[in-house]
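ESCALATION

Customer reports they have been waiting on this structure for their group meeting. Please prioritize. Original submission:
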Amino acid sequence: MNARIAAVLVVLLAVVGGGALLYYQKERSRSPANAGTLGQPLLKDLKVSEVASIRIVEPKATLTLQRKEEGWVIAERDGFPADLGKVRGFVLQALGLKVGQSEPIGDPDRARLNLDQSGTQVEFDAADGKALAKLVVGRKYFRREVENAEKASADGRFVMLPADPKTVLIVSDPLRQASARSADWLDRRSFKVEKLKSLELRYPDGSRWRIERPADNAGWKLAGAEPGEKLDIGRANSASYSLGLLELADVAPRDAKDTGLEHPTLINATTLDGVAYSIKVGKLEGENYYVRFPSSPYTVLVPKSRLEDTLKKRGDLLEKKAGTK
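Update from on-call: job pushed to the front of the queue and completed.
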């Protein structure tokens, strides 16, 4: 290799190296200033053991979950028990949130993404009331356009930290549990009234019926049956079995009015073990009945579908005679 060729190669190497350096510097300048936050915990100062209260505020609803000695409760429902699994899961979910994307944002975009007062405000507090972490949960995030965003499963959520209102963040968790609806947080353990010996219904108009059986494998008998009346065993079984499937739809507010519980339908049930239950059923509100158990201070809402077999009138429990509808 002569000196001229060597000199040319040196010049070429310098040009290529300089170009590579220039490209690297340009790429660095294109990287967002907050690139270092990507993949980092969103609520890095939040500690599970310190959380004593969770406050969730939506434009038309507020829900406060409080940790008590007996467990978590819903303040707006007079301390009704909250689902421990859901509460714990939500805190762990928040703790595990990581920044997937970060972009600057202005007032118009904040409103469009529901990251202003139209969004869901979430606050985790300590026992002394000190705020441990705050988060604004906005619209669902989708990687691609969907037909019905309201019903479609999201790929994540737009969120914002109140301390940094000029930055919108995207997390990969859709945060479905970030809701101020009390029904989404109730401890829904079923009211199980099983293995009945007797079941009696008393209606506000004074009508009533009562079915009885001596043992679990014995057939039901209609008390006071008239000549020619025959109890439909399948319907009697459904009436008694349904009480073992009762579940909550929601808890009524303390100031709920026009519940119908002043003149209720009474369900009196006694089990084969001698345990007696007295249940008051009030007005049908939408798809749920107002219900009150004497042993409980709460008025609850029970789905109509869980009570309709039990609330049948006496005539609906009888076998239909041939030729009748």
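Sent to customer with the following note: The helical segments are 3-30, 84-95, 107-112, 233-241, 304-307.
Escalation resolved.
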